[in-house]
Design a protein that fits this description.
heterodimer; A: 582 residues; alpha/beta; ABC transporter transmembrane region fold; Rossmann fold; six-stranded mixed beta sheet; 20 helices; B: alpha/beta; four-stranded antiparallel beta sheet; 16 strands; elongated
Chain lengths: 582, 645
């Protein structure tokens, strides 16, 4: 995991190395000042030497300025390293996601991927900056102050050493148990937020059943539970500061007492005592700082792991060596094809599929939800690979093609389709970057999208908002079909792509396909019988197997499932949820 | 002498140094309101906490002042003395130790009490928020994004916690420290105090400059971050489309541009924010050095009785002085940030809850001597209970499920009406179907019956009672609703079905599940009726969730049912099974059906065709087919050629 992330440092290795050095430089400057101050007291004031005071004073100012410079440099390099690291991480993830196959995409949820690219990267950026700047500064400050103290007086410095060990133990003890508590709290906390989320989205159900009181009681109980757990966890944390404070105070008093004896017996100077008292704070505060860094790093570990998973994920599909660069025609053949989303699953999604579709044929596919209609067509453009058997396009196994070539010739309109923010034309040109305005209009005519586009105020330059929320479902589907048509594919697959289009328009689109692109092989998945009944042949899918593959008339006579579906829809081919007009 | 023990902030999303301060209107008013919340339950706690902060700061300051006494009174005089007497020193140290002890204890008491205050206040606030939210009209949820509502519970509450438990005590602490250190410094040496003040001025000036530069860049960073996040979300959501169109390279190219911009602004913002630290500490050190030189000179010449001990104390004060001054602005920022969150919290709390002027109630009833009387147990019969204020009498009227709309106009806002002059009559036990295009107003009509929204004009009557006169609670209990998107709650299958009737017995649950044809699949679940459902029933199929929703409505046994596209996303074969359950449920009840497939509404007593908020046709299937107008076109799938009004 760390190796994967570290590999993304690249050009930011140098600032990453320089930052801690700058930080150490700053600390050293800071640690010299108390010694010089002690000297001023001993040799300057007590020695009555004003010249010495001035001379040392100037040295001290120079040291402070040096500290300022290395501190600022540390900030510069630190932010360069951490923000650059974040940039590279984002890029590495985004690049790798682009290489993902459908199977890879399925593995991660969309919101999961977005969180990894955004929140998790920010966490790592902050933790990395903290690590570079503080993780060096804190121990360095502690060690230097400790060494200085030992040089001044080993006897008194022992007190600090004891205090550090004592405080360290306390921190480990408190942190250990509290992090455990906090983990529990956060789990409960998530559950609490989930229940709020649930209520917000299901508010109509709550109100319909008049369950406000019921929900209030449930929530109050959960909120009180959270309160108790938080108090339990934070109670322990509230010991931390006072104990730290008490330790510092105890040290100061011990040093004062013993120091006084030593000064009087002339084994220590007043200046030494002053330096020692300053170091006391440095040592113990650094220790507290270290514990915080430790917490922060452990907390960012989860983020690091999530990021590494995305970067390390290997695409399940890859281009073959010497790929075939041309698709001859639009014929499709399935040979004893098996498919499972998960290789370990016992029950394959598709079982023993054999199909022979001629180039230019129009094929309908029908079947209940979960009958694997989509899985079947997804094999054709090699969005997934078969687990056994083979799929051929144009007489050649799809795995032998260059993937880009294959996908440009096999155009799929996905069931869950998406438009991107940008104008209609920009969206259409996803299909063909070089498409002229005329070509785009032509494709829209075929997909019956021209009628509503023409009525839009900005026509083809109408801006589509993110997710395509400013066009209706039916309009979106038609735009997606037009976009797919612009590829001028040899095979066109419509995966339930006209479900929100009214039946009349649906028929019109099918008619246009038949007349205008007769040579393109067309596969149409639909719920409505009316959408497929005029196809050359219809595949009836049931539970991952082909239950029937024949013409409408023949299926009506000899396929039970088809007849059943047909009967449930007969006479009601009409659909009330037709597309609204603009 | 002890440098102030500063509280190190744990990792969190608090304000960073140099972040721009958010703008909040009326900060004082908000602040007072939050404090009102805190003091309402924790007044005593708060008084003790403030006192504790005072004590711990003063204990710290007296400790620093002790350095002077230590050096001047107990060490210097003893130097060279043959038989030094440590007695007085012992006593002095003991005294200081007592004060320190009190200080440490106060600090403990403060943080310990603070846990209860902050968490307790948050708990009350959460409860108030939730209870109030539940009372808000549906309109609130329509007009506010769910994400925004959620962020009040998560982010805003969290920044409030930081403000109550950290920022406010720290700010108080800083203020007391600044004042007490300033007084101590003046007492020790006026000239050195002036030097210190000048140096603090320099530090503040420099950090203000850096803060301004960093603030500007933080705003740019925020903007770029928004752009990158938006782009990521869009691309990842459409990742499969990107693959299908081989659009990967373009996606990466655009991403690289946005990513680079973000890096540039983040780098600058963080650099400026990062140098604030060294500026404060190193310029602080310079201030320390300048004081050391001046003070050294003063002590050397014993100007105005200034001693080495005085210098030692003063130097510690000097170090401790600039730190809280710097922190004040950061703490202030984080309070302002929390106030921005508090503003959103109070906005929700100030939203007008649903009003209910209804007085007609729904009660169990039974017949006694030919009269309807109220029953205290479930009888299977219901009656409307009218209380007449004028003559202090109560009358009962049987509930039958008769719903009429009379000239109803409705719009979500007064400017734009979505329903015009709706007139319809559903007789008890009838099945009424609403069909029409998306946005024609089908769902809106059903939302008016249960008063999710109130109408602008016209009357809706339920058993001839104006629904405004019926208590909302009783009105809604008499209506069973199955919605298009099924929402289930975290809990067992059984609990989800029992949502319709909280005190249902196991037998009733099973009976309802059987009625909805859900019993079969529930029994096949790993734990049957006790299977846990999470994430809105994510482990069930759409059809199964739909069946549970129907069972939930069935157990409530309402006289009137509203089925809003209850089977729209189920394929035809599954729908058949669901339909059987629905038909059983509809038997003998007045039912409003909004349906997608016309086959499911064919057998309705009355089919209402809606277009752009108006009823264009009404009648049963045969009548409408005979008319050969809109319904006929929809039904036969022919595109309408004539324009229907």
């Amino acid at each position: 995991m760390i190796k994967t992330l570290a590999a993304q440092l690249k050009e930011f290795k140098l600032p990453s190395i320089l930052t801690p050095f700058c930080m150490i430089g700053e600390v050293v400057c800071e640690m010299i000042i108390p010694v010089l101050m002690g000297n001023i007291v001993d040799y300057g004031i007590n020695g009555g030497d004003m010249g010495y005071i001035l001379k040392t004073g100037i040295v001290m100012i120079l040291v402070a300025i040096l500290g300022l410079i290395s501190g600022c440099l540390g900030a510069y390099f630190g932010s360069k390293a951490s923000t650059g690291f974040a940039r590279n991480l984002r890029k590495a993830m985004f690049d790798n996601i682009q290489k993902y196959s459908f199977a890879n995409i399925d593995k991660f949820s969309t919101s999961g991927l977005v969180t990894r690219l955004t929140t998790d990267v920010t966490n790592i950026q902050n933790a990395y900056m903290m690590m570079l700047r503080m993780a060096m500064r804190a121990p360095a400050s502690m060690i230097i102050a400790m060494v200085m103290s030992f040089i001044i007086s080993p006897r008194l410095a022992t007190i600090y050493l004891c205090a550090v060990i004592f405080l360290g133990l306390i921190i480990v003890l408190l942190m250990g148990t509290t992090t455990k508590y906090f983990k529990q709290v956060f789990e409960k906390y998530d559950a609490l937020n989930e229940s709020v989320q649930e209520n917000v989205s299901a508010i109509r159900v709550v109100k319909s059943y008049v369950r406000e009181e019921h929900e209030n009681t449930k929530f109050a109980k959960a909120a009180e539970n959270i309160y108790m757990m938080f108090v339990k966890a934070e109670k322990r944390m509230s010991y931390m500061m006072p104990i730290n404070m008490a330790t510092v105070y105890a040290c100061i008093l011990l040093i004062s007492w013993m120091g006084a004896h030593m000064i009087v017996s002339d084994t220590l100077t007043t200046g030494n005592l002053m330096s020692l008292l300053t170091y006391c704070m440095n040592i113990l505060m650094s220790l507290m700082m270290l514990s915080m860094i430790f917490v922060m790093i452990t907390m960012s570990q989860a983020s690091a792991k999530r990021i590494a998973e995305v970067i390390e994920e290997k695409s399940t599909l890859s281009n073959p060596e010497n790929p075939v660069m041309e698709v001859k025609d639009g014929s499709i053949k399935f040979n004893n094809a098996y498919f499972a989303y998960n290789k370990d699953s016992k029950e394959p999604v598709l079982k023993n599929i054999n199909l022979d579709i001629k180039s230019g044929e129009t094929i309908g596919i029908i079947g209940g939800t979960g009958s694997a209609k989509s899985s079947l067509v997804n094999l054709i453009s090699r969005l997934y690979d078969v687990t056994d058997g083979s799929v051929e396009v144009g007489g050649i196994d799809v795995r032998k093609y260059d993937m880009e070539v294959l996908r440009n010739q096999v155009s799929v309109v996905l069931q869950k389709n998406v438009l991107f923010s940008g104008t209609i034309l920009e969206n259409l040109r996803w299909g063909d970057k070089e498409a002229t305005d005329e070509e785009c209009k032509r494709a829209c005519q075929l997909a019956c999208a021209d009628e509503f586009i023409d009525r839009m105020p900005d026509g083809y330059d109408t801006y589509i908002e993110q997710g395509g929320n400013n066009v209706s479902g039916g309009q979106k589907q038609r735009l997606c079909i037009a976009r797919a048509l612009l590829k001028k594919p040899k095979i066109l697959i419509l995966d339930d792509s006209t479900s929100a289009v009214d039946t009349a328009t649906d028929a019109k689109i099918r008619k246009a396909f038949a007349e205008e692109i007769p040579d393109t092989t067309k596969l149409i998945i639909a719920q409505r019988i009316s959408s497929v009944q005029n196809c050359d042949r219809i595949i009836v899918m049931d539970n991952g197997q082909i239950n029937g593959f024949d013409t409408h008339e023949n299926l009506l006579n000899n396929n039970d499932i088809y007849r059943e579906v047909y009967e449930s829809q007969t006479g009601s081919s009409g659909d009330a949820d037709f597309d609204e007009k603009v | 002498m002890a440098e102030k023990v500063k509280e190190i902030k744990g990792p969190g999303n608090g304000p960073r140094r140099g972040m721009p301060r958010p703008k909040v209107e009326n900060p004082m008013k908000l602040f007072k309101r939050i404090m009102g919340y805190v003091f309402k339950y924790y007044a005593v706690h708060m008084v003790i906490i403030v006192a504790c902060i005072f004590i711990s700061v003063l204990a710290n300051v007296q400790g620093t002042l002790f350095t002077k006494t230590l050096i001047d009174s107990y060490i210097t005089p003893l130097i060279g003395v043959a038989d030094p007497d440590y007695g007085p020193l012992k006593n002095a140290i003991f005294r200081v130790a007592v004060f320190y002890g009190i200080g440490a204890f106060s600090s403990f008491l403060q943080s310990r009490l603070m846990v209860n205050v902050s968490q307790g206040t948050l708990m009350r606030m959460r409860k108030d928020l939730f209870t109030h939210m539940e009372s808000l009209p549906i309109k609130y949820f329509d007009t506010n994004s769910h994400g925004d509502i959620m962020s009040i519970y998560t982010n805003d509450i969290d920044t409030l916690r930081q403000m109550i438990s950290q920022s406010i005590p720290q700010l108080l602490n800083s203020a007391i420290t600044i004042v007490s250190i300033f007084i101590s410094m003046v007492m020790l040496s006026i000239p050195l105090t002036i030097v210190t003040l000048i140096m603090v001025g320099v530090i503040l000036f420099c950090s203000a400059k850096a803060t301004a530069a960093s603030g500007k860049n933080f705003i740019a960073q925020q903007k770029n971050l928004g752009a990158v996040n938006g782009y990521i979300e869009e691309m990842v959501t459409g990742q499969k489309v990107v693959k299908v169109f081989c659009h990967e390279e373009e996606a990466v190219k655009k991403f690289d541009e946005l990513n680079e911009e973000l890096y540039q602004s983040a780098f600058k913002a963080n650099t400026y924010s990062g140098i604030l630290g060294p500026i404060n500490t190193q310029l602080g050190n310079t201030s320390y050095v300048v004081c050391a030189i001046f003070g050294g000179a003063l002590a050397l010449n014993s100007v105005a009785g200034f001693t080495v001990g005085g210098l030692a104390s003063f130097l510690t004060f000097n170090k401790n002085f600039s730190m809280p001054i710097n922190q004040v602005s950061m703490q202030f920022n984080s309070i302002i940030m929390a106030l921005a969150g508090a503003d959103r919290i109070f906005k929700l709390l100030d939203e007008q809850p649903e009003t209910d002027d209804g007085y007609v109630m729904l009660v169990n009833s039974e017949m006694k001597d030919g009269q309807i009387v109220e029953a205290d147990h479930h009888t299977g019969h219901w009656a409307w209970k009218h209380y007449h204020k004028a003559d202090n009498t109560t009358t009962y009227q049987p509930m039958e499920g008769d719903v009429t709309f009379n000239g109803v106009d409705f719009g979500y806002t007064d400017e734009k009406m979505v329903l015009h002059d709706i007139v319809l009559h559903a007789k008890p036990g009838q099945k009424i179907a609403l069909v029409g295009s998306t946005g024609a107003g089908k769902t809106t009509i059903t939302n008016l019956i249960n008063r999710f929204y109130d109408i602008q004009d016209g009357k809706i009557r339920y058993d001839n009672i104006n629904i405004n006169k019926i208590k909302k609670k009783d009105l809604r209990l008499s209506l069973g609703v199955v919605l298009q998107d099924t929402h289930l709650f975290t809990g067992t299958v059984k609990e989800n079905i029992m949502y319709g009737k909280l005190n249902a017995t196991d037998e009733e649950v099973v009976a309802a599940a059987k009625l909805a044809n859900a019993d079969g699949f529930i029994r096949r679940l790993p734990d049957g009726y006790d299977t846990m459902l999470t994430g809105d029933g994510a482990n069930l199929s759409q059809g199964q969730r739909q069946l549970l929703a129907i069972a939930r409505a069935a157990i409530a046994d309402p006289p009137v049912l509203i089925l809003d596209e209850a089977t729209s996303s189920i394929d035809t074969r599954t729908e058949k099974i669901v339909q059987e359950g629905m038909d059983k449920l509809m038997h003998g009840r007045t039912t409003f059906v909004i349906a997608h497939r016309l086959s499911t509404v064919k057998n309705s007593d009355c089919i209402i065709v809606l277009e752009q908020g108006r009823i264009v046709e009404m009648g049963n299937h045969d009548e409408l087919i005979a008319k050969k107008q809109r319904y006929y076109q929809l039904y036969t799938g022919n595109k309408p050629e004539m324009v229907t009004a």
